[in-house]
Structure formats: C-alpha cells, structure tokens
Amino acid sequence: MTEYRTSGGLMSYGERGEGPGDPLVLLHGFPLNRKMWAPQVEAFSATRRVITPDYPGFGASPRPCAQPDMRYYAEGVLGLLDKLGLDRVVLGGLSMGGYVAFACLRLFPERISALLLANTRPDPDDEDVRETRRKMARRIAEEGVEVIPELQIDRLFAPEVLKNNKKVVEFVRGIMLDSSPDGAVAALGAMRDRPDSTDLLGKINVPTLVISGEKDTIATPEVMGEMAANIPGSHYHIISEAGHLSNLEAPEEFNTTLREFLEKV
Ligand code: MLT
C-alpha cells in the first residue's frame, strides 16, 4: 500500500493505469474506502491514470489524530496531488466524497479540470441529521465499527439491490468493517459540521457531471437535480435502478455515463 504524509496527516492511496488525459481522482463515501471504486478503477485504468485515496481512519490509512473538518480531507487530497506532481486532475466524489470535493473546490480550484459529483448534496445537515450523526458516533465509539452495517447498510441501496444483489451488499459490509472507530467518528463530526456549499455551485466553471440514483433517499434525485441546475453547463444523469451507491449498484450505466463525459472534456 502506498502511503504519504501531508499537512493533514498520513494517507494511503491506490493508483493504476496511464493515458493522455488528466488523471482521475476518486473520493470515497462514508463509511467506506477506496475499494468502493473497484468497478471504475477496472474500467478507466485501461486508458487513464486513476487514483483513489483512503481518508485517514478508513481502509489502509492510519487514523486521524483529532476532530477534522472537511478542509482537512481536502488538504490530504492536495498533499497527494503535490506528492504525485499532478497539476490538474478530474476530481470525482460520491456522497461524502462530494462534500470533500466541495472543500477541494474551495482550496485548489485551479487544479481541477473537470468534476464528477455522484449521490451528494451541497446543503449542510439539518438538526435531525446532526443529532443522528451524534448518536451514531457515540455508538461506534462505545461498541466499535461492528455496529456500522446495522446502522447504515439499508440506507445505502435501492430496495431491489438490497434484496437481490447480496454480493454487492456483502462487499460493502466488508468495506465498512475495515473502518477504524476513530476514523468513522471523525468523519461523522466533519460531515455534521460541514459548511453550506450552495454558494459554490454557480462559481463552478469546469465541465461537471452529476449522477444520482432514483432510489437514493440521502441525496435524492430532486436535491441533486436542483444542484445540477445551479452548476453552469453541467450534465445531469439519473440512474433508475440505483440508490445511494450508484457506482456499485449500476456500474455499467455509471461507467458509460462517465466515459461519455470524459470523452468530451
Ligand atoms: C456517504 O455515503 O458518504 C454518507 O452517507 C453521506 C452522509 O451521510 O451524508
């Protein structure tokens, strides 16, 4: 596993492929890690360099040392671009990865040549969601990461996928259990206190692809449609058979949509 130290701490990352286009950097959701991008790494590394960091406390990255904010994770991404000598990248994020992508847009917009926002939302948490995150953090701290699948897994998939695609559900369960309690609690705090990114949308001036899942109850197609409408010139695609983890639930449609987008940027 490749590791590097940044101003934000120590992070691990995966790297595969090469090609003429800007490298594709994919930011994972919560409480997952870079392995969630397996179908995209497989598909896109044939023609392009694909880089997938693990946030501190997830996957192979050591845990963070204090309560981070979203900027902390973006600093980690910036440190990785510097370490690899990458001037410009196509940046993609799913869910929490989208929240980190917004922080990256604030921190280093000049290094982002195109953007993918999947199953994410620009607005901050309301008080109910903040309270749910507090409770979840408490349970993880007291009982360990073993409680995560029970608390989270049903919310992440379209009902049909949950029922009929045990392979992908078990894959995600395994990824969740690779999280550290400190990493999960830290990410919950950072998501709970994340800033409103709605004001950022109108300032995005790079080609942007927005992908949602029709059955996503966390970042609903309505919220994402409004987000896309506020990003100048963005392309919006809804995957009808997917919930919150659209890249894993419908990898072929996700990859086709992303490929068509990348061919144009
Ligand atoms: C994620 O998939 O990253 C999380 O579900 C995002 C969230 O809880 O807001």
TrEMBL record:
Q: What is this protein's name?
A: Hydrolase, alpha/beta fold family
Molecular-function GO terms, alphabetical: hydrolase activity
Gene3D superfamilies, per database record: alpha/beta hydrolase
Specify the AB hydrolase-1 domain's residue ranges.
Answer: 23-251
Q: Domain of life of the organism in this record?
A: Bacteria
Kindly state which keywords UniProt assigns to this record, in alphabetical order.
Hydrolase
Q: Does the keyword Hydrolase apply?
A: yes
A Pfam family (short name) is Abhydrolase_1
Q: What is the lineage of its organism?
A: Bacteria, Bacillati, Actinomycetota, Rubrobacteria, Rubrobacterales
